[in-house]
Design brief:
By secondary structure, the protein is of the alpha+beta class. It is 18% helix and 29% strand. The chain is built from 8 helices and 19 strands.
Length: 370
């Protein structure tokens, strides 16, 4: 868990923090596997839709391998671990308070394991119904850590829920480690005056993400004049084709287009799946005249955006701030691909991205000094 969140959504604040939970050993969290993320200040709020939770759910766990007395320790701690399916944990009664059951007919999740259906790790009995005050403990420890170190912190912890009434054994929380929040380029400064206006592709105060992304050369963008809110399904298919091409070429890109990316309402944006834009390193939701939709803030791809440290920006059509997209610069850049809705532009000079996770400021610019 960390006391500062670089990807706040809805009404969350950066200072509300973020936590990641997994069944089994913490290697699943450390290596970026499928885990359950939540805001400790708002533990009852799911960050994903039911559909996204199904696709991003934890399906395996790490456990100690006790089957053999002979362990080859040359592989460090991984030599003693084994990855097993969650069904094994259920056989041992370890998912009772950790899982919910997916109801196909009603498209919802039911806490507990009293129904038939796919098991999805949600920690609902803990986070929503107070079986154990985990979020309160996390919040308190993060507050103490910040006060003691004078900066944002992150903690590692373990929770043993093995209660036994006959031995008066209670659930136990173990604080394993506390340290300053280590984020690369955490002091990234975004200042418009440091850049020539003709080199700036985009500036916004509504960015999510933190740090620098360097040496990009490609932008896939949907010009306002080619976008139509009644043709978003066709736009989705075209972008899927483009992304496949970029994947074959092992090329990352910046994606810019109107409306909400990944929207379930196709009239509010393009109902794209993350696998169809998987080569993007920055995703931009732009407002255009007559179609200035409130931003989605990456909620449709939250798991992927956070895990891959993708920049997610919003630029309203009529911004009260200084936010803007330099459409003229985009149109003047070298075009190496054109489709019905999208254009592929390439810059010989690197395109760099700077994101300040504390202020929400972000800038995309052409680095002509390289």
């Amino acid at each position: 868990a960390q006391s500062y969140n670089f990807y706040p959504i809805d009404n969350q604040l950066h200072s509300d923090g973020m936590a990641s939970l997994a069944v089994g050993l913490g290697k699943m969290v450390i290596e970026g596997g499928n885990v359950f993320r939540f805001c400790p200040k708002h533990p009852k709020v799911w960050l994903l839709s039911v559909e996204d939770m199904l696709s991003a759910a934890q399906r395996e766990l790490y456990a100690l391998d006790l089957r053999s007395n002979q362990m080859g320790l040359c592989g460090l701690e991984s030599s003693t671990l084994v990855k097993i399916p969650l069904s094994k944990a259920e056989e041992h009664g370890r998912l009772k308070h950790l899982a919910s059951v997916f109801d196909y007919q009603n498209n919802r999740l039911w806490p507990g394991l009293n129904r038939k259906g796919p098991r999805i790790i949600t920690f609902d009995n803990i986070l929503k119904y107070g079986y154990y005050p985990l979020s309160n403990i996390i919040n308190r420890l993060l507050e103490i850590g910040e006060a003691a170190l004078g900066m944002p912190v992150e903690i590692e912890f373990a929770l043993d829920l093995d209660r036994k009434c006959d031995t008066n054994k209670h659930s136990t929380f173990y604080l394993l480690q506390i340290r300053p929040l280590a984020v690369s380029n955490s002091n990234t400064t975004v200042k418009l005056s440091n850049y020539k206006k003709n080199d700036i592709i985009l500036y916004t105060k509504k960015g999510m993400g933190n740090g620098d992304i360097e040496d990009l050369h490609d932008i896939i963008w949907c010009p306002p004049e080619t976008f139509s809110s009644i043709e978003t399904l066709n736009i989705q298919q075209e972008l899927d084709t483009i992304n496949r091409k970029m994947k074959e070429e092992k090329t990352n890109y910046i994606l810019i287009g109107p409306g909400r990316w990944g929207s379930q309402d196709r009239f509010l944006g393009v109902p794209i799946q993350f696998g169809q834009i998987s080569q993007s390193k920055v995703i931009v939701e732009s407002g255009i005249q007559g179609f200035d939709i409130p931003p989605s803030q990456g909620t449709h791809f939250f798991h992927n955006v956070v895990a891959m440290n993708i920049g997610y920006f919003s630029v309203p059509y009529q911004s009260e701030e200084e936010d803007f997209i330099n459409w003229d610069l985009l149109r003047s850049m070298k075009k190496i691909g054109k489709w019905k809705y999208f254009k592929h532009i390439h810059s010989a000079k690197p395109i760099n991205v700077k994101m300040n996770g504390k202020t929400g400021e972000a800038i995309i610019f052409i680095n002509k000094k390289s």
